Every structure is written in C-alpha cells, then in structure tokens.
Amino acid sequence: MNRREFFAVGTAGAATLFSARGFAALSAAPAASPSIPPLLFGVDYYPDQTPEHLWEEDAAAMAAAGVTNVRIAEFAWGLMEPSEGAYDFRWLDRAVAILHAHNIGCILGTPSAAPPPWLSQKYPEVLMVNEHGVTLAPGTRRFTCPTNTTYRRLSVNIATEMAKHFASTPGIIGWQIDNELTLGDSARCYCRSCREGFQQWLRKRYPSLDAINQTWGTVFWSNTYTDFSQIPVPLPSGAPPNPGFALDYYRYQSDANASFLEEQLTVLRRLCPQHFITTNNAGLVDNLNLRDLYRNLDFASADNYPSFFAIILADSGASLPPEAIAALTSLGHDTARGLKDGKPFFIMEEQSGKSGQPFFSPQPEPGQLRLWSYQAVAHGAFGINYFRWDTAVFGAEEYWHGLLRHDRSHSPGFDEIVQTMRELKSLGPEALHAPYDAQLGLILDLSSDWALTFQPGQPKLKYLSELTSWYGSLAATGRGVDILEGTEDLSRYKAIFAPLLYVVSAQQAERIRAYVQGGGLFFAGFRLGVKDERSRIVETPLPGLLRDVMGVELYDYQPIYAETQNVKFTGALAAADAPVHLWADILIPKEADVLATYTGGANPGKAAITANSFGKGKAFYLGAHLEGPELARVLLTLLASHNVPRAFEAPAGVEISSRNANGNRWTYFLNHNSEPQTVPLKESYQDAFDSSAVSGTLTLPAYGVRVLKSKARG
User: Fold this and answer.
1) Phi then psi dihedrals of residue 479, to 5 deg
2) Active site residue 180
3) DSSP H helices in 433-491
4) DSSP label of 39
5) What is the pLDDT of residue 602?
6) % of residues, the chain, pLDDT over 70
C-alpha cells in the first residue's frame, strides 16, 4: 500500500461519516530509561542530501528555532556502505558532531528500506515479487523481500556496524528501524523465498499436513496437498484462492515483517542498550499486524499528513466536511496509541507545508499546522518531528516542502511551527506523557479485514470503510476511543463497538460475553461471527459464538445492489425511515427487543436492529448498513439512552479530547473549521499556559486551539 492508497481507503470510509525546560542534556547524555524518552520536538533532516558547507548553518538555525532532535540516515545505505563490507561513517560522524555541538540529539535510522544499487545487482534474488507475479525493479525503495535470507543478512550487517560505531557517540539518543514497512506499492511479497518461508511457517503452526488439508478444506477443487513443497503462494490462478489458505498467507507475511524488524532490534538492544528504539508507519494501514511489529519496541511512531485527503477528494470528485477529515486523522492517532496498549506515541513525520510526490497537497491554511500538531498531542503523542527541515531539490520528493523552501528561505509555516514547538514544550513532561482518556473501545480485527478482502460479499463492502464510518460517529461523543483487538480486558470501557466482526475467535467471544454480563454495552454491525479463525464458515446459526449475547439468530443475509430497502425505527430510535445500502442481516429475535424493522424488499417487518439484555449489560445488533448520518444518530441515541451522553455539546468540526495524570486533566479544544466557533463549558478550567480562569463559553478562532487544565474526574 502506498501513501495514496492509504489515504484513499480512509477517504472511502469518511465519505459516510457524520458529518520550558533546558534541552542541553538531551544530546549530551542518553535518556535515563530508553522507554521514557526526553521531550522531542524536532525535524527530519538529510545531511546526506545537503551540501556539507550548509550543515553548520542548518544546525545553528535549528537550534535557534527550538529544535531538540533530528532523525537522520534512514535512506543513506549507499553512503554508509558504498560496497559490500566497506563501511564509511565519517560523513555521518561530522554531521552528528555538528548537531551535537548545537544541543540537537540524533535519532538514527537503519537504512533497510532503500538498499544501494550494488546490492540488488549482486543479489537479484532479494527483489520482491508483487501480487501479480511481477518482480519489482530496483531504483526506489521498498522493493525487497522481507523473508529473503540474503537481504536479512545484509540489513542486519549494516545495522550492526552502525550500532557498533555509534553506540557511545555523544548526541545519539535513539533509533528508528527501517522506514514505513507498511507503505510500499506492493503490500506483500510472493517470491520463491516467501513460498519456502510460508511452508516452514505452516509446519510450525499445524501438527501435520493432514491438519492443513482439513482446516483449509483442500478437498475442494482437488487441492489436497501430499507434500509441504506443493503449497503455493496466492498468486493469480484460474479462480479466487482458498480463503483459509489466503488468510494464513497474510498472517505469514505479517509475521515475516515483524521478524525482519526483530532481527535488527536484537542487535540494537545488545549494542545500544541506553538508546530508545522505534519504527514509523502511517495512520490506519492494515497489511501488517502493527501490534506484533511494535511489541518489543519502546514506543510507537506514526507519520501524519492530513492534507493528503484533499488530493484524493479532488481525484474522486467527492467532498467531506471538516469534522470528517479531522476524524480520519484522529483515527490514525488513536490507532498508533493502541499499538502499545495506550502508551503515548511519537510523530516521526508531521506535515510542515505542501507535500507530495507527483502531486502537491494544498498549502495548509494559517493555523492548520499548529492545529494538526495539537491534534496529535491531544490523542496521546508525546513529541513531534516535522518533515522535513529543508525541501529537496532533487529526487522523488521535491514536492515535499519542509520548514525551508527550495531557496532555503523560511516556508509560510515556519514561524507557526516554531511557535507550536515552544508552546508544546512548555506543557511539560507530565502533560505530554499523560494517558489518553478513552471511555469507548472500537475493535479493529485484522482477521476480519483480511478475510473480507478475499470474500467481501458485496463489491463495495470494505472493512476499513466501515470502521472509519463507525469511528466518525463515535468521535462526535467527545468521550475518546481506544482501538482494540477484542482480546483485552474490556471492563474499563463504557461501550465497545465491533463493525464487521466477520471472524470471531473463541477468545474474543469470551471477552465480549464477560464484558456484557458484567454490565457493558456492546454494539455489533452486520456480518457478525460468520467465520472462525481459520476462515471457515461456522456450522451453527449466525451470529455463531455470539448468538446468546446478541439474543438473535439470522433468518437470512442479503447483499444490496440496486433494489430499494429501508428501515423503520421504533421506540427510542423513532425517526423517519432510512435507506439501507450494501448489506442487510435479517434478524430473528430470540430474547432481543426490536428497535428497527425492514420495509420494502423481500423481508418487510423483519428485524433490522435489536437490543438484548444479557447479564447486567446490553448487546445491540445493527443488521442494516446505514449511511453515516443515520449510523451516527442511532449510535449516539442508544448511548445517550443508556447513560453515555456526549461529553460536550460542540459545533460540528470542533474536536475535544482529554489526557489525565496525577489528578490533573488537560482538555484540548480543536477547531477544524475555517470560521470561529463557540463551545459551552460545563465546568471551570484554567488555561494550561497562563493559568487564567476559563468558564461559561469558549470561543475558538478559525483553526484555533485551546488547552484547558482542571482536576481529573473520578
């Protein structure tokens, strides 16, 4: 998945949305604990792309601007190892020394995302094969196979030599392994090395070949395997692949990338125990299990380019209100925070101006760069690096504007970024490392996502589109959303939401059952519990393992194409009938109450939305696919009727979220509109910067931000 595809996925879902301390010590010595980094507000810098006579000038200007750190060298393999086994770090030593002299710390990037030409020429077997069976050509980045033993060896070698050389270098504070493993043009590799690796992966996860045949149902289409060497990779064939086989291959590729990273991590931990270690990825991407990728890293890092959505919208002819685009960006932040179970995360790349490769994104409006930075912090970021310091005058990212323009003059957003860094530093470590206040949980299940990729049931039905639509509805509550797997202890949340939970594991079912029995509110969408973990359709009435919790059985399910189908609401949901698109689960209540029924079509009067009391809690089944405004109305109405109202009554496009620590609460008010907005306040606050009293109402200018402090609520 490339950047454009990533933003396109999010936009498709959003189309249905509801509408000051000293820093000298930073580079003089490593952090006391690699898991708790110092305050980081910096830039991404490329001395490898910048004439050396400008390095001193750059470092002095960065220091004057308040930059505390840089990320460097993640694409500089060719300079560090110009031929195999011949390492040259002299240029990087000089760059680090200059930066250190100006009290700027360095995060070193291992360069395995972009190997030099000598490597692919000498070892062509390292090249990735895409999903069409085409071998990628070298010359850009992310064109190599993560399973290839030669590429792994060479990647570990350069990481090892870097770690040995820089382990005790003053000014080095941390590491980024690779760069954006999730955002290549090809999401997965299908080469011979991957086929052999997949076969070995299967040997470890299944007791026998017979077990694989039984699980996948290979008797279908005469695909029974009699030797592990017969098992292929899911390249194009005469028909769609076996769904269990394809799902396992996606899992294998995810594991392969995690183990690729882990090999470098092992070296860095051994040689540089005093440095923090992370890697970066962009927002909501789903080709890898990012929880596995980040499991042993110190914190998650994310990349953030909000104005990219404008390119996709212009291309599609669609339009989105400010609150929808804001929700997409927030979902990316909440996803990053969820990768380490709510631990604060870092923005490794933050938009600093017009951005792009073949196309420019729009120039951010005055105030938006500050707004987007605060939005990240509001959702749990502890620091931000802006991409990039200076704008490249050559290469594929000449359109990616930094704090300096091509002529090295200040960009339009330079002063705004300097102001923002100064303000955020003044918030201090307590605020920036405070836990995010999330009262709602949204399940992102990769097995369901991947299984629906092979068998969506209706061509326009997309897992991430449905997820973003539900998230946009929940964002309007102002109660904070955690992104979950559904296998965690769910008891801390007021409500749990599971759109398109197509695959339900036994562990998920038990967690959800215990949660509802204990008094929780559980909301599920259509296609619930259709498959087990191996992508086999369950052999019990749907919704399978959650049938008792939901209090319904499915009479039938119906993909919606051109036919007219509507739902009629009753009781607390009473309102005008709403159209149903894409999908309808037709429900038979067993114990559940009916909140909406179908009209028209083949099933008039049958249940579309139900509510079931189960133990001390309640489970809601939304069997009908509703468009964003109606979905939001249904979810917000049901939450309010069960004592979970909106936390704030705010105008559309005003986002509010909070972080709590040590009895203190920081509430962030963010106006994503181009016009001023007023928010009524339910309590009294202090301004987080000047301690002035704030109560009654709060007026936010266009793209304005306020951070208000109060005592944390119990």
Assistant:
1) -105, 5
2) yes
3) 446-454, 463-475
4) P
5) 87
6) 95
Among candidate residues 74, 323, 349, 630, the one labeled active-site is: 349
Catalytic residue, from 74, 81, 180, 655: name it.
180
Query: Which residues make beta-bridge pairs with 667?
Result: 658, 708
Those residues with Cβ within 8 angstroms of residue 582's Cβ, 6 or more apart along the chain or in another chain: 458, 460, 461, 559, 560, 625
| Alpha carbon distances (Å) from 181 to 143, 449, 464 | 11, 19, 19
pTM metric for this prediction: 0.94
Nearest CA-CA partner of 100 in 37, 32, 23, 162: 23
Q: What is the pLDDT of residues 594-637, one digit of tens each?
A: 999 999 888 999 999 999 999 999 999 999 999 999 999 999 99
Question: What pLDDT, on a 0 to 100 scale, did the predictor assign at position 39?
Answer: 85
pLDDT surpassing 90 at residue 1: no
Q: Where are the beta strands (DSSP E) in 111-186?
A: 172-176
Distance (Å, whole) CA 367 – CA 704: 7
**Residue 329 near residue 672 (C-beta atoms within 8 A):** no
Q: Distance between CA 665 and CA 274 in Å, rounded? A: 32
Which element (helix H / strand E) includes 206?
none
CA-only gyration radius of the chain, Å: 26
Close Cβ partners of 661 (under 8 Å, ≥ 6 residues apart): 430, 431, 433, 434, 435, 712
Asked if 385 and 347 count as a contact pair (C-beta separation under 8 A), the reply is yes
Strands 280-282 and 301-304, sheet pairing: parallel
Specify the 3-state DSSP secondary structure of 63. helix
Q: Clarify whether 398 is annotated catalytic.
A: no
Residue partners of 69: CB distance under 8 A and separation at least 6: 26, 27, 40, 41, 42, 104, 105, 106, 107, 173, 385
The single-letter DSSP state of residue 361 is P
Length of the chain in residues, anyone?
714
Distance CA 621, CA 170 (A): 58
